[in-house]
Amino acid sequence: MINMHKHTHTRVRAASSGFTLLEVLIAIVVVAFGLLGLAGLQLFALKNNQSASARVAATSLASDMIDRMKANFQGVIAGNYHAPDLTSYGGPAVPTCNTVAGCTPAELAQHDLLEWTTRVAAALPGGVGIVCSDPTPNDAAPTPTPPALTGCAPAATSDLPLYAVKIWWVDDRSQANPGGTLKYVYTAFNP
Questions:
Q1: Is 79 left (phi over 0), alpha (psi -120 to 50) or beta?
Q2: Is 66:165 a contact under the CB 8 Å cutoff?
Q3: What phi and psi values does residue 31 have, to the nearest 5 degrees?
Q4: How distant, in Å, are the alpha carbons of 41, 116, 162, 190 from that of 66?
Q5: How far is residue 130's CA from residue 137's CA, in Å, rounded to a whole number?
Q6: How many beta carbons lie within 10 A of that of residue 107, not counting itself?
Q7: Any idea of the CA torsion for 24, 29, 35, 38, to the nearest 10 degrees?
Q8: How far apart are the first and last CA of the chain?
Q9: Which of 27, 137, 138, 171 could disulfide-pair with 183, CB 3.0 to 4.6 Å?
């Protein structure tokens, strides 16, 4: 009898050891799919975080230009910040603006525009910015157009025109879209 009981115990043990191996394999597959899902979620969050970071940088750069213009109100009144053409930003730097001697409001505007566009290009991928007097500042929203095609026309009827700070950059680059997507932000203000 003891011999029979021992034989039955061995059969049950062999069947349960195979069942445990199957459970482990299923658990490994479930964990693998979970880790793949987690990696995909992390990639999605990273992409959106980078996009949000670029938008914050663009908004900060727009505020920077507005602060520069508020500090040089005479240059704003004279229209020295109305630079709708991208070639307007390639002027020479005015080194005296950073010294005690100072510079004229027109020179300060030229210096501000040059420094600001350099910062935009450095902070954003494919970053381009313009500052202009524009009665319709949201002409490129919601589908942004390249800055060369954006019209900036000064308002003819107001003493202090509505100014717009417009910034474009390239975002959402991927293997499927290597050129990226053009993004745009604008800030309008009345000095």
A1: left
A2: yes
A3: -65, -40
A4: 38, 11, 12, 10
A5: 11
A6: 18
A7: -130
A8: 104
A9: 171
Q: Report the alpha-carbon distance of residue 70 to residue 66 in Å, rounded.
A: 6
- Closest residue by Cα to residue 150 from 130, 179, 126, 124: 130
Phi, psi of 180 (to 5 degrees): 80, -175
Question: What angle separates helix 2-71 from helix 105-123, to the nearest 10 degrees?
Answer: 170
Which tokens hold the place of 74?
């005479």
Q: Is-contact 134 172, C-beta < 8 A?
A: no
Q: Nearest 5°: CA angle at 14, between 9 and 17?
A: 120
List helix spans (H) across 72-185. 73-77, 105-123
Count helices and strands in the chain by DSSP H and E runs:
3, 3
pLDDT at position 140 over 60: no
The DSSP secondary-structure symbol of 183 reads E
Look at the block and give the residue holding tokens 């700070």: 165
Sheet architecture: strand order including 128-133:
128-133, 163-171, 181-189
Cis bond upstream, residue 146 (ω within 30): no
Q: What is the pLDDT of residues 89-120, one digit of tens each?
A: 777 888 888 888 889 999 999 999 999 999 99
The tens digit of pLDDT for each residue in 28-84 reads 999 999 999 998 888 877 777 788 889 999 999 999 999 999 999 999 989 899 888
- Residue found under tokens 């997507």: 181
